[in-house]
């Protein structure tokens, strides 16, 4: 790989480097920002490491009227604010006695840059830059050139210090399209169980980045690295479940892997829905007299299970709700007929965006099935989408708020309390299939004609 040697350091970052140099301190860009500059990738956070102690950093910054925030003094970190942009500056340090395979219980400052870099995770993240000169103590440039993820020193020690590095290694492999060096990969497999010590929020954040990558066969990577069941133990339900049907050529796990491949680049909620959509198939499998498998009820059960999994991983409630609905309807197949589509949109309360997402999930799902039926099934979905787009363009009504009458009109007709809700729902169901009749005069006429029936029923 040809590395970018013509990288540009933003002026606000160079200002901090020059400021430290002018006070006779060492200062280097370090970590992910260096890696991404050399790979010509966009950089969002710039980190600087220095031999200046944190208290001294605060003192000299104050003398020069520079805004500095003590964001992590116990770990030697302060944040310079230059032109409203943050730059983290951390004193060289040594970390010891890691707690719960995540955080050091003891941090000691050191004058040695190399000692500081030895505590970092991977060789490609231990590169430093000063005045466009690259410092490389651990052959990180060679690994960067060869697209290799390799731990600094003993891989098992690095993962025991911080088990989250296991997912970071997999994430860098997927995002950068790199290869994990054999000893590092073996250590991932050996130490995958340590992920149980990591907070669910940290697991979730790394897992989202994995899902947002373009990695082929992500599920295979997670399974073979022994990390999948550490993140989602329920995935064991998908292993070794044949699908004896003309629609399927894969077992459940391989089907879900193929469908997830098809969903690359899709929004997170759709990726999560495909990731979890068939987990309950094993528990709903039946065989008919022709020895064909059926899985009636699995969509609802898988939707409920997705809620358990995503709650445990601390996903936001809005995402959990959307994923639940996408899975609930992933097996709800429509024909390109307006009558059935309108019933579908009524169930979704006229949420056209959600309708499109459900159909997109269905298309991804189909991509993991028998190739002989994919084109046929997805063509039907495309025809359904075209009709829904026509309905949306025509501003069709699927909630009572779109009716050309309201509760006050019903009161004028003599309706009271719960009668109002009943008649408005009646009018809505009528309008769903008679969209051209949504006029004030016509709806008042219908409502007036139903008054005695609804009042007597009440």
UniProtKB/TrEMBL annotation:
Keyword Magnesium among record annotations: yes
Residue span(s) of domain Poly A polymerase head: 27-150
Claim: Aminoacyl-tRNA synthetase is one of the keywords in the record: no
Keywords: Hydrolase, Magnesium, Metal-binding, Nucleotide-binding, Nucleotidyltransferase, RNA-binding, Transferase, tRNA processing
Segments forming domain tRNA nucleotidyltransferase/poly(A) polymerase RNA and SrmB- binding: 177-235
Highest taxon of source: Bacteria
Entry EC number(s): 2.7.7.72, 3.1.3.-, 3.1.4.-
Cofactor or coenzyme needed: Mg(2+)
Domain HD stretches: 248-335
One MF annotation (Gene Ontology) recorded for this entry: hydrolase activity
Family under the similarity heading: Belongs to the tRNA nucleotidyltransferase/poly(A) polymerase family.
Protein name: tRNA nucleotidyltransferase (CCA-adding enzyme)
């Amino acid at each position: 790989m040809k590395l970018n040697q013509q990288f540009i350091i933003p002026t606000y970052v160079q200002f901090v480097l020059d400021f430290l140099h002018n006070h006779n301190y060492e200062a280097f860009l370090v970590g992910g920002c260096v890696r991404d500059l050399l790979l010509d990738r966009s950089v969002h956070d710039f980190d600087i490491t220095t031999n200046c102690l944190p208290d001294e950093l605060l003192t000299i910054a104050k003398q020069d009227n520079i805004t500095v925030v003590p964001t992590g003094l116990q770990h030697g970190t302060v944040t310079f604010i230059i032109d409203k942009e943050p730059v983290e500056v951390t004193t060289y340090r040594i970390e010891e006695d890691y707690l719960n395979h995540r955080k050091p219980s003891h941090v000691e400052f050191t004058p040695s840059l190399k000692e500081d870099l030895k505590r970092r995770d991977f060789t490609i993240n231990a590169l430093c830059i000063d005045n466009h000169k690259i410092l490389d103590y651990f052959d990180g440039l060679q690994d960067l050139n060869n697209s290799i993820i390799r731990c600094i020193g003993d891989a098992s020690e690095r993962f025991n210090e911080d088990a989250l590095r296991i997912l970071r290694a997999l994430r860098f492999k997927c995002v950068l399209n790199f290869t994990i060096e054999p000893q590092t990969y073996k250590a991932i497999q050996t130490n995958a169980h340590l992920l149980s010590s990591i907070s669910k929020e940290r697991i979730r954040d790394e897992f989202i980045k994995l899902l947002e990558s373009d990695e082929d066969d992500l599920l295979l990577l997670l399974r073979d690295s022994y990390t999948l069941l550490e993140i989602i133990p329920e995935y064991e339900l998908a292993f070794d479940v044949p699908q004896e049907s003309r629609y399927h050529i894969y077992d459940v796990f391989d089907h879900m892997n193929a469908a997830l491949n098809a969903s690359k680049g899709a929004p997170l909620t759709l990726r999560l829905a495909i990731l979890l959509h068939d987990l309950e198939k094993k528990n709903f499998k039946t065989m008919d007299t022709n020895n064909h498998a059926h899985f009636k009820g699995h969509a609802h059960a898988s939707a409920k299970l997705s809620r358990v999994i995503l709650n445990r991983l601390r996903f936001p409630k809005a995402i959990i709700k959307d994923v639940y609905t996408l899975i609930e309807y992933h097996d709800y197949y429509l024909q390109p007929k307006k009558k059935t589509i309108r019933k579908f949109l009524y169930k979704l309360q006229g949420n056209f965006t959600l309708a499109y997402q459900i159909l997109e999930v269905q298309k991804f799902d189909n991509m993991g099935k028998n190739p002989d039926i994919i084109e046929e099934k997805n063509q039907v979905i495309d025809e359904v989408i075209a009709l829904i787009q026509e309905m949306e363009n025509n501003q069709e009504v699927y909630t009572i708020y779109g009716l050309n009458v309201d509760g006050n009109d019903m009161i004028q007709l003599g309706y009271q309390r719960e009668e109002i809700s009943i008649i408005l729902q009646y009018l809505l169901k009528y309008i769903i299939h008679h969209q051209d009749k949504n006029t004030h005069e016509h709806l008042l006429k219908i409502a007036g004609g139903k008054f005695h029936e609804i009042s007597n029923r009440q």
